[in-house]
């Protein structure tokens, strides 16, 4: 991140009319569903805007701050990524709100015709407020977050290129309230955080493509670290650090952003999966991939990726059970299954509990 970067408020100072705080980011959720016509297909930027205009809502906040734009010689498109997947395939929830807020703070939105260079990372003022002020200085104590604190932080930085910051600070503070920023302080792995890992990799790899760079899977750990992902995705913990390895492995075996394209998933299954597990579900409903080492590592994926998730060592939670998944029941199931396996194999202890205690005590 260059120190000579410029922070511009852009259209974020306009009123998006989020509505009541009880609605969360449902206005954004609905915009995405309408703009993509509830389909997981990349959409032309102009067509997205045309569809949103029917809602009578401004479109610049969703397309310039939350979604990812890709331009080439033929078209300006808004692409399908993890945020779009969650909006199209899942019900609106707190998980979506936190993922969307992460996407805003991460601030990778790509390029489109006519965009200025600073619009590629349009909310760097928010990125640095979270990274430097909340994560670094306050160790994720979000009690300090307020419109005045945001205004003081932004106004005191020489990179901020605007005369005033009052409207930006007010809008950002409200966004943080309805987007559940205080819940980012949770150290345990949560579903939205697992989604954020996938979203960050989607955005980073697509952003690098705009510069002609192809990101190899072996680079995922490095590019995530350099992006500031760990700093802005909530309070760090050993639990998250260990989970990151499994989630990157799942992202890799599912093909990265290719996980949304059936022909590419089928090809990958043919290359990797052996035996009867090659069967691809017909349902479009997402399934959950949960890792046996930590029941909190639960990631919703397209159902067609199920064979790949199994090959990566994940267990599958069917779509009908996804929202009711219980971590404790799953952990109990694993424990019981382990006991039964030991019993079936006739494995028995070779020493008594008393002998074991003597051995461990050095007597």
Outline:
The chain is mostly helical. It is built from 16 helices and six strands.
What keyword list fits this structure?
363 residues, mainly alpha, three-stranded antiparallel sheet, 7% strand, globular
Element-level helix/strand string: HEHHEEHHHHHHHHHHEEHEHH
Based on Cα principal axes, name the global outline. globular
Give the proportion of residues in helices: 40-55%
**Arithmetic mean of pLDDT:** 90
Oligomer: single chain
Strand order within the widest sheet?
1-3-2
Which structural class do you get from the secondary structure elements? Answer: mainly alpha
Strand content: 5-15%
Largest sheet report: 3 strands, antiparallel
Query: Which runs of at least 5 residues are low in confidence (pLDDT < 50)?
Result: 335-343
What is the terminal-to-terminal distance?
Answer: 59 Å
The value of Rg in angstroms is 23 Å
Number of strands: 6
Helical segment count: 16
């Amino acid at each position: 991140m260059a120190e000579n970067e410029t922070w511009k408020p852009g259209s974020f100072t306009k009123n998006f009319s989020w509505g009541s705080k009880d609605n969360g980011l449902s206005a954004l959720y609905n915009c995405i569903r309408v703009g993509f016509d509830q389909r997981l297909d990349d959409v032309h930027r102009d067509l997205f805007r045309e569809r949103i205009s029917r809602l009578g809502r401004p479109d610049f906040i969703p397309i310039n701050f939350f979604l990812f734009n890709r331009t080439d010689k033929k078209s300006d498109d808004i692409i399908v990524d993890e945020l779009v997947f969650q909006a199209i395939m899942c019900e609106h929830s707190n998980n979506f709100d936190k993922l969307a807020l992460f996407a805003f703070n991460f601030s990778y939105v790509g390029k489109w015709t006519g965009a200025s260079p600073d619009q590629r990372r349009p909310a760097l003022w928010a990125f640095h407020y979270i990274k430097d002020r909340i994560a670094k200085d306050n160790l994720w104590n979000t009690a300090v977050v307020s419109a005045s604190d945001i205004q003081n932080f932004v106004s005191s930085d020489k990179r901020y290129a605007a005369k005033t910051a009052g409207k930006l600070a007010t809008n950002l503070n409200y966004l943080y309230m309805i987007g559940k920023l205080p819940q980012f302080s949770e150290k345990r792995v949560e579903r939205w955080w697992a989604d954020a890992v996938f979203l960050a990799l989607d955005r980073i790899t697509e952003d690098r493509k705009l510069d002609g760079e192809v990101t190899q899977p072996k680079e995922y750990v490095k590019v995530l670290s350099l992006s500031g992902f760990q700093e802005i995705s909530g309070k760090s913990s050993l639990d998250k650090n260990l989970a990151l390895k499994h989630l990157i492995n799942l992202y890799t075996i599912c093909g990265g952003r290719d996980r949304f394209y059936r022909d590419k998933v089928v090809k990958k299954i043919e290359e990797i999966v052996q035996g009867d597990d090659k069967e691809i579900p017909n349902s479009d409903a997402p399934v959950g991939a949960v890792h046996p080492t930590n029941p909190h590592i639960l990631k919703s994926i397209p159902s067609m990726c199920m064979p790949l998730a199994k090959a990566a060592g994940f267990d599958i939670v069917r779509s009908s059970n996804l929202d009711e998944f219980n971590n404790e029941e799953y952990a109990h199931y694993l424990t019981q299954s382990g006991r039964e396996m030991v019993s079936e194999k006739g494995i028995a202890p070779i020493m008594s509990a008393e002998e074991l205690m003597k051995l461990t005590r050095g007597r």
